[in-house]
């Protein structure tokens, strides 16, 4: 059984690694002038999106370090105001990857009192990080597709983990796209994004 858990954790961490590598590439596109731009997340500026991504990375780091994630921390430290917050996010993403790679066993993670397996946490984190990486690139006016194989895997997982109860709180309504469209577009549409979204420069 331990061998199966280790395999599952290894697969989850590998998926998270690929998502982080993709997202870090998108973060390299961010300039201070772009922070006020809109994003595929309706009503969010790029600055707000980066703040949210920072929170997500912080939660992943917390999960790996202590196996506990507080959904509503009482005294969360605010992110520092930086000329380009994407620089610190790239460092944070590297720390997250190192923390998850160092895990030796698939111990469960307590999230708001609910126990979730480590592989599931890593997989959900991979979805979050990769899709926000796409959001960041589009906000910067760049076409930076999620790698097809990664998009396929994330789409399969998203269809399992994202339920109707997650809408409209965590995700917008699903966007209709033909079933013949690339996996990336089906993933984005499933998570409430318009795959053809363009930023107004």
State the main characteristics:
4% strand; mainly alpha; globular; three-stranded mixed β-sheet; 201 residues; Four Helix Bundle (Hemerythrin (Met), subunit A)
Structural account:
With 201 residues, the protein is mainly alpha-helical. It has one domain (2-190): Four Helix Bundle (Hemerythrin (Met), subunit A) (Up-down Bundle). It is 53% helix and 4% strand. It contains 6 helices and 3 strands, in the order ααβαββααα. It has helices at 2-27, 46-66, 86-101, 118-139, 148-161, 183-190, and strands at 68-69, 109-111, 114-116. Strands 1-2-3 form a 3-stranded mixed beta sheet. Helix 3 links the parallel strand 1 and strand 2 (109-111). The longest helix has 26 residues, at 2-27. It is globular and about 50 Å long.
Q: Secondary-structure blueprint of this entry?
A:
Blueprint: H1 2-27, H2 46-66, E1 68-69, H3 86-101, E2 109-111, E3 114-116, H4 118-139, H5 148-161, H6 183-190
Parallel strand pairs: 1-2
Antiparallel strand pairs: 2-3
Helix pairs in contact: 1-3, 1-4, 2-3, 2-4, 4-5, 5-6
CATH topology: Four Helix Bundle (Hemerythrin (Met), subunit A)
Write down the domain tally. 1
Rg over CA atoms, rounded to whole Å, is 16 Å
- Count the helices. How many? 6
Low-confidence stretches: 73-77
Binned, the helix content reads 40-55%
Q: Tally the beta strands.
A: 3
Structural class assignment = mainly alpha
């Amino acid at each position: 059984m331990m061998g199966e858990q280790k395999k599952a954790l290894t697969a989850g961490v590998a998926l998270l690694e690929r998502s982080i590598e993709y997202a870090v590439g998108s973060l390299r596109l961010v300039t201070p002038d772009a922070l006020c731009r809109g994003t595929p997340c309706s009503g969010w500026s790029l600055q707000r999106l980066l703040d949210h991504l920072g929170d997500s990375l912080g939660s992943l780091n917390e999960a790996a370090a202590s196996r506990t994630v507080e959904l509503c921390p009482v005294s969360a430290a605010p992110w520092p105001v930086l000329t380009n917050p994407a620089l610190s996010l790239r460092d944070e993403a590297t720390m997250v990857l190192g923390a998850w790679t160092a895990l030796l066993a698939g111990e469960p993670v307590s999230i708001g009192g609910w126990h979730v397996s480590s592989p599931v946490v890593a997989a959900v984190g991979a979805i979050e990080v990769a899709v926000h990486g796409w959001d960041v690139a589009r906000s910067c006016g760049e076409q930076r597709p999620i790698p097809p194989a990664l998009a396929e895997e994330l789409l399969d997982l998203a269809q399992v983990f994202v339920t109707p109860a997650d809408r409209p709180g965590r995700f917008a309504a699903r966007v209709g796209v033909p079933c013949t469209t690339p996996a990336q577009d089906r993933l984005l549409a499933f998570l409430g994004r318009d795959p053809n979204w363009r930023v107004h420069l």
